[in-house]
Amino acid sequence: MPHIADTHIVNRERVQPTHANNYESAHGGIVMKWMDEIGAMSAMRAAEETCVTAQMSRVDFERPIPIGDTALVESWAYATGRTSVRVRIEVSRENPRTGETEETTSAYATFVAVEDGTPVPVPELTVHGEKCKELRDRALAEEPERE
Ligand SMILES: CCCCCCCCCCCCCCCC(=O)SCCNC(=O)CCNC(=O)[C@H](O)C(C)(C)COP(=O)(O)OP(=O)(O)OC[C@H]1O[C@@H](n2cnc3c(N)ncnc32)[C@H](O)[C@@H]1OP(=O)(O)O
């Protein structure tokens, strides 16, 4: 059974002019694509299966990520259903010279494990140790109400 900490993935993207909007910062759709991809990788670690995006919610764009900065994309699975995996995704801008970071974007996403397009059961996601607890609590603290 996977632990929450096993699903924690951190990725970096250098924001290039080809990623930009008209305001010299990363285009929101590009940032969401990075979030979706890294989130899916966390979900797959939890599901031990291929996963597809079923929902992305509470996408908050708090600050821009200027061209030349690094987008630090972090995600982890914090809860599972029968076939679904709930994932928290957080993005920060990182100064490549100093390593200084500032939160820019965040979201909650639900992925579904599939085999040939049909939902399949996922294993239980376990909490093992302080890192798991910290990640789970950080995600649950702001999780939007689910239908
Ligand atoms: C070979 C691989 C190599 C990999 C290499 C690694 C590289 C890794 C890189 C990754 C890179 C890709 C990252 C981008 C990932 C995409 O781009 S995926 C593409 C976009 N998404 C899609 O096309 C999905 C389209 N939707 C569907 O196919 C179907 O609606 C779904 C999601 C399979 C669900 O099917 P369904 O028949 O509605 O299923 P149903 O039995 O009703 O519900 C199943 C579960 O889904 C949940 N659910 C259904 N709809 C929703 C919803 N709207 N909201 C929340 N939950 C929902 C249900 O609550 C239920 O949860 P459980 O109670 O079982 O836990």
TrEMBL record:
GO terms for cellular component: cytosol. This is Acyl-CoA thioesterase. It comes from Haloarcula pellucida. The keyword Hydrolase applies. CDD domains: BFIT_BACH. Keywords: Hydrolase. Residues 5-117 form the HotDog ACOT-type domain. GO terms for biological process: acyl-CoA metabolic process; fatty acid catabolic process. Gene3D superfamilies: Hotdog Thioesterase. GO terms for molecular function: long-chain fatty acyl-CoA hydrolase activity. Pfam families: 4HBT (PF03061). The keyword Hydrolase applies. PROSITE patterns: HOTDOG_ACOT.
